[in-house]
Amino acid sequence: MDYIYSILTLTGITMIGVMGTYMVTGLTGQFSFGQAAFMAVGGYVSAMLALKYGVPFALAALIGSAAAALSGLLVGMPTVRLRRDYISLVTFGFGEAIISVLNNSAQLTGGAEGLVGIPKRVDLPLVMASVVVCLFLVACYKNSKYGRQCLALRTDELAARSMGIDVNRLKLVTFLFASAITGYAGVLYAFYAQYLEPGYFNWTVSAEWLIIVFVGGINSLTGAMVSAVILTSLPEFLRFASAWRIIIYCIIVLLIINFRPNGIFGDWEISRLWKKKTTVKGGQA
Amino acid sequence: MSTTTTRGLLEVSGLSKAFGGVHAVDDFSFAAKPGEIVGIIGPNGAGKTTVFNLVTGVYAADRGSVLLDGVSLCGRRQDQIAREGIGRTFQNIRLFKGLNVLENVMTASDPTAPYGFFSAILSLPAKRGSDRQEAKKGREYLSLVGLSGLEDARPESLPYGMQRKLELARALAIGPKVILLDEPAAGLNPSEVREFIDLVQRLHERFNFTIVFIEHRMEVVMNLSHKLFVLSFGKLLASGEPLEVRHNPEVIEAYIGEED
Amino acid sequence: MLQNIFFGLSLGAVYSLVAVGFALVFNILKFSNFSHGGVMSFTAYAGYLAYIMLFDGHISGSWMFLAIVTTAAVVGALTAIVIERVGFRRLRRNNAPVIYYFISSITLGILLENIITIFASSNFYSYPLFFSSNNIALFGTTFSVADVVTLLVSSGALIILLLVLYRSKLGLGVRTVSFDVNTASLMGIDPDLVVMATFAMSGALGGISGVFLGMNYSLYPQLGQLVVKGFVASVIGGLGSITGAVIGALLLGIVEVALIGVVGSGWMPACVFVIMLVFLLVRPRGIAGVIVQEKA
Q1: Pick from C131, C142, C112: which is nearest to C42 by CA?
Q2: Do the chains contact at C267 and A88, CB–CB below 8 Å?
Q3: Which of A101, C70, C115, C197 makes the best surface tag, with the fewest CB within 10 Å?
């Protein structure tokens, strides 16, 4: 039971991390190879606040997410105006830089041995509630003028600009929001696992999130969430060795890319089930 | 939404742009008075689309100036120029594939929609009200171009002629003073072309904006334009009333081998 | 000082092999090919396997080195051809957006890495010492033989590549396709063949760099993640530019060696990040200055 409980909790945390990747990749079409680093920022900042200064969890969580957003600003500002390839490079470099900083300031962060003794403040109900709230925020964002403009610029930046869309600003806003959400996933992880080590936030984690979003359907938040649940929890239950698990991942992704390029869900969203009606009603108005 | 505008004075002078030594546009000047319909014609590769790209800020001009109602657009970003009131369509239709037909039109009013980030993520009343307004306007634009009832369709599933109309509706939705149409009739069949001419004339009567268009089909050129500018190898070859330009020997020579 | 610069150059030479392998594919298909890292790991192990099973006891020293490098280059070329077939051929047919190439290449890279992990079970292996640890004395300082060989072999490989690109019919095809695929096929060039050849060349370079990286860092499945050095170098140099990639790689090598001297290897990645960020701000198009302009 404990085992299932822990898988569900970690799946929930992954879902929140994937939401950040979904925003950056699914909405603005950029590839963040360092998304996990924002998780590290959120986790470490909040954990150190709690450990060293006894800051209460809620406040630490808030500051942790804000710190992640701030680092998102640092990374995003110079990159949004560059070619899309660069953002993957810069985010990657940022991820490596964060890990090297964490490893090299042992007296502060515990270095490679990790940060231990974080109080346990997160349990399954809190994670589930967080998933619901974050999902609501992200879904509203997608469904607003921000989401529409993002989807427009993702398909065609030039045409988007000619509609008056400030492409760079929009990319930045989305990137910050995504960093904050990912940072919050880091907070949850820190106060659940009670232990943090730099290696956990490696670029392969970011790559795994990208793959999850892609498998679900790059245009679909619903798809990203379903695929996050399947791809994180199923292998755990099946108890594969991790290398085999990743190989299976990769083969699935290759099959999807080649034979079902829009992912499992394409751009279908669960909200269409009830949205259809309102559109018709609006049409008559 | 139908504000009869008296603005839309577009003055382009001495525009030049070279790509790696090739003068795509060379000292080209033209002007469109408010409410005027101006055609730019010329053989393939004459630099017509480049002129549009220079006016809308896709490329920065090497030399020359672009004034809209006396305000210089030089050095402005593409999105700022669009918000100044220059709408455009593209030669090779560029609709947003991830969005449905209505949302495509709404992207044009989204940049100026009056609500902020927190209203958006919390779906506050301000956001919902503004979105409803935008959707309503979007539907009106769609009905203007005759696409009512297709709001939920995917743009790429529409037939070619309708995609052209959708692009037009999207350009209308930014509330332009000047609208640039890049070969709007390309790929349309003869009956669609006539329909399109009617549509543009109707919209022009209604909004009285300035229209600058690039076109090869003489039917469109002769029916729509008040004034014509002929571009050849990046330079202005001739300009004037459509009929006089059509019988200009230099123009005829430039077009030899080109079908009309 | 001179010694350090030389060490930096030799490191940069390896990076330049990686970067050029990376730039070749970018040049033609306009995406950042991360599967290149997988090719590097894979060939490094293939070279090791050939050493254990074929060459050990028969040849030694420089000959052994040459045999391994050649094997790795051939394996690299073949692997890259397979990768192109599995990962990219269909995408080109479907005219898929760049995003897909990108994801496909990352996936293939991770796939190769994990296949190696399963078979080599994350053990560390290492190549034999090919060259006597003697140093060469020159200009009043000493240089290690391995560094000299690295520089020579890398330059040789790059010169051969440039000759192929600029002096052969195939090279002309590559340059034409990189300019515009459609025009190229109009001119009677078979783009499939050219793309395949480009991947083969890139893979061969990946093979050679794989062996060098294996020599420097010993063998481990994640060795290919050093592809990022090539990525950084080709961004600094200007994406898609071959000469830019070489210059960027040499600079990166020297800067890294210098940084290790100044701040230590632990802080080096953070410093490289800051330098890269500044570079992107000051000169986003890279040294070579090619801007890939979107067509309106």
Answers
A1: C112
A2: no
A3: C70
Cβ-based neighbours of C284, under 8 Å, separated by 6 or more: A81, A82, A83, A86
Q: In chain B, which residue's Cα lies nearest the Cα of A219?
A: B98
Give alpha helix (H) positions in chain C. 2-29, 35-50, 61-83, 90-93, 98-120, 145-167, 169-179, 181-186, 191-217, 227-237, 242-263, 268-282
pLDDT band at A194 (very low <50, low <70, confident <90, very high): very high
Is residue C99 less than 8 Å (CB to CB) from chain B?
Answer: no
Cβ–Cβ below 8 Å for A85 and C268 = no
Angle at A197 between CA A192 and CA A198, to 5 degrees: 130
Percentage of chain A modeled with pLDDT above 70:
92
For B88, the closest chain C residue by CA position comes to C296
Size of interface A-C (CB pairs under 8 A): 117
Q: Which residues of C161-172 are buried (b: 16+ CB within 10 A; e: fewer)?
A: beeebeeeebbb
What Å distances lie between residue B200 and A34, A130, B177, B208, C267, CA to CA? 49, 52, 15, 11, 63
- Neighbouring residues of C197: CB distance < 8 A, sequence distance ≥ 6: C170, C173, C174
Tell me which chains share at least 3 CB pairs under 8 Å with chain A.
B, C
- Whole-angstrom CA distances from A261 to A21, A25, B119, C57, C72 are 18, 15, 34, 50, 33
- Biggest distance spanned by C-alpha atoms of chain A: 66
B95 touches chain A (CB under 8 A): yes
Residues of A within 8 A of C118 (CB-CB) are: 241, 243-244, 247
Chain B: closest CA distance from residue C150 (Å): 38
Cα angle vertex C227, ends C221, C230, to 5°?
A: 160
State the pLDDT confidence band at B79, using cuts at 50, 70 and 90: very high
Cβ <8 Å between C111 and A85: no
Contact C81, C108 (CB under 8 A): no
Residues of chain C with pLDDT > 70: what percent? 94
Q: Which amino acid is at A188?
A: L
CA–CA separation, C80 and C94 (whole Å): 20
Give the tens place of pLDDT for each residue, C169-228: 888 888 888 777 767 776 777 888 899 999 999 999 999 999 999 988 888 888 888 888
* Predicted confidence band of residue C32 (pLDDT cuts 50, 70, 90): confident
B89 touches chain C (CB under 8 A): no
Task: Say what the pLDDT of residue A122 is.
Answer: 93
What pLDDT shows up at residue B40? 94
Instruction: State whether the Cα torsion C285-C291-C294-C296 is positive or negative.
Output: positive
pLDDT of residue C179: 76
The CA-atom distances, in angstroms, between A279 and each of A67, B136, B139, B143 are 40, 11, 11, 16
Residues of A in contact with C269 (CB under 8 A): 93, 96-97, 99-100
